[in-house]
Amino acid sequence: MPVIPLDDHHWALTTPASTYVIGVEIDPDTGEAAPRQTYWGPRLPDEAARQVTGLPRRHVSSFSTPGEVEELLPVDGGKRWGVPSLQVAFGDTRSLELRFAGARRHDEGGGAERLDVLLADAHFPFEVVLSLRVRDDTDVIERWTTVRAGTQAVVTRLDSGNWFVPDAPGYRYSGVFGAWAEESQLQRGPLPVGELVFTSRQGITSHVANPWVMIDDGAATEEHGEVWGVALAWSGSWRLTTTHRPEGGVCVSGGFGHDGLRWTLAPGEELVTPSVLGLYSPGGFGGASRAWHAYARGHVLPTPAEERPVLYNSWEATTFAVTEAHQLELAKTAASIGVELFVIDDGWFGRRDDDTTSLGDWFPHRERFPDGLRGMLDGIRDLGLRVGLWVEPEGLSKESELYRAHPDWALHLEHRRRDEKRGQLVLNFARDDVRAWALGWLDTLVTELGLDYLKWDMNRPFTQAGWPERGAGQDHVWIEHTRGVYQVMRELRGRHPGLRIESCAGGGGRVDLGIMRYTDEVWPSDNTDARDRQTVQHGFSQLYPASAMSAWVTDSPNPTTRRAMPLRYRFHVAMAGVLGVGGNLSEWTAGELETAAELIAQYKRVRRTIQQGAQYRLAGTPGQERSAVQYVLGDQVAVLVYNPLGNAKRGPRTLRLAGLDPDAVYELESDGSRWYGATLMGAGIRPAAWAPIGADHRSELVVLKKV
Looking at the domain assignment, is residue 613 inside a domain? Predict the structure, then answer.
């Protein structure tokens, strides 16, 4: 079994490649219990795991307790002065003194086992349960925390768990930062002594950061070295705090919420956190990424084995001016080049002529579609296409019938203004009546129109995020709104098993392992410029798989950056995920449409390998120098090769592949030549796109088959 009792107070949690040893230390003088991590690294035999429970602890001075970074959930209380993972107040007492109340193992089936460590406060009726889950097919360990109040308690911080990274001579962190149209920018640098916080206070995952961090000793490379990763499966406000102690030692504590929130628990109430996930990988950043990808496909995404269809979205061709004639014209062209799914974006509902009105009025635009949408959608289906619609269920316009009927449904605070962003407010999905309303019209829409797909957008962060009817408990809206969105998505999918959902939030504002449990793919950025997308996709791929990444080919010059780009380069960048087309096909030339059809057909031949295969990031910095992304599945190898600066004198000149069988022979599809895997990995090949002199933005798809 994955959970191995070592004695009454210590357990080893084993994964295919790692061991995670924890124990509960009890202070002999005070009786206080401190659940602690004693090992996290390469897999150990059982007896070796038992030995690490007795390793010496860190030196304690009168002014510090360095060992608190090793605790699974350091609380606010006692001789601790670092970042608490749990802060609770009982009236005027803001402190916890926990006692060990036992542990329970649960066989959850399917190769998964859970360990619950039970703790209780020494005086107040307050329980804390630390839950850990391990599976026999992944190195990702899942952790979460439950607190139960027997008397009124005010929780001001409740993280899902704290992870200790083993000692090293130095530490380096990896994460992503960004902004709208510039999401998922990879940053990597020395971890400073002190506290480094990655966070979102926006009520959504946000564009500015993403809830994960990786730590190494500064020597790891793409394919070599030890890497420890922590990721939070949550789509609301969140916080990851990395602490680097002056004496040495690093921990990462992660959970929902942000500074300033107060969650009041009445007697008998409990609060359960989302999962915080930990991964140890001995295979460098690439090995860590492939392990995260496999976990997402195996245990997160709802339809991981499906091949995602090639999509066309009509937004950039029409903006708000959606008409039946134009949509059918676009659909005919899209079908002719091999598109399989046609999605109508914003502008089909209410009186939606611009972004200042009608969010909440989810009925067909009465002037443009007096007879409804069914005729138009049936016309699109007659072309052999599946159909989808853009929706923004959490958005609310003041200029709407819904707002006039239910102004109290918007997030708001008493005696404070209601600020608009993008001409809209946010509906409170923590409310039962709002969720019932949303599920009702979504269910009706999908049923009556026979929809295959929804693009679920969310175009603004929270402001004045209150719920006055809840009084002192209104800060729960920061948690329950997100859970309400999850609930509506889950119930809608339950009623319509064939429905597929894409998550979008003004681009990449809601990309995380929480929303991916309910959606089939996510939209990583509104910026579709191919060179910019390479850096976005590079950062995205550190944690998330290609099968969840929606990627479009749009017009040139690009509508966001105004940069001109060859059509092939735009396609080859978008092929690195779930291929879509978003340009104005009415203005594409016959030659461009012919090329698009050719490239879409090429993509379909390697689609399963790209979406389901093991991904390798090769060569130089994407978007800045010669680079490539390789995918391996079964006997097929697909490599997307890029050269943004055709006359560059420096950078890689041969492309060395990875992840192949060195003794096997691989046939190159383009010319039938055959190569040993050892040659391809050791010496490499010279892609045509990497010729020393040529135009900017050259690219190609290289396909090999193991023979």
Answer: no
Determine if residue 354 is labeled as part of a ligand binding site: no
> What's the pLDDT tens digit per position in 34-59?
999 999 999 999 999 999 998 877 77
> Structural domain of residue 660, as residue ranges?
627-706
Does 376 carry a binding-site annotation?
Answer: no
Angular region, 217: left φ>0, alpha ψ -120 to 50, beta rest: alpha
Name the one residue in this structure whose structure tokens are 């607190």.
147
User: If we measure between CA atoms, which residue out of 221, 144, 149 comes closest to residue 188?
Assistant: 221
- Kindly state whether residues 245 and 278 are assigned to the same domain: yes
- 614-619 and 578-581 beta bridge pairing: unpaired
Residue pair 195/311 in contact (Cβ under 8 Å)? The answer is: no
Please write the tens of the pLDDT for every residue from 405-417: 999 999 999 999 9
With left for phi above 0 and alpha for psi between -120 and 50, is residue 619 left, alpha or beta?
left
Tokens (6 digits) for 318? 């029409």
Domain boundary at 547, 578, 608, which?
608
Q: Which pLDDT score, from 0 to 100, does residue 643 have?
A: 96
Distance CA 542, CA 231 (A): 11
Q: Tokens in use for 440?
A: 């009702």
| 229: exposed, middle or buried (Cβ count in 10 Å: 0-12, 13-18, 19+) | buried
Gap between the terminal Cα atoms of the chain: 39
The answer to the question of whether 459 is labelled as a binding residue is yes
Return the minimum-mean-pLDDT range out of 124-138, 428-442, 567-581, 647-661: 647-661
Q: Which residues are catalytic?
A: 457, 526
**Known binder of ligand: residue 526?**
yes
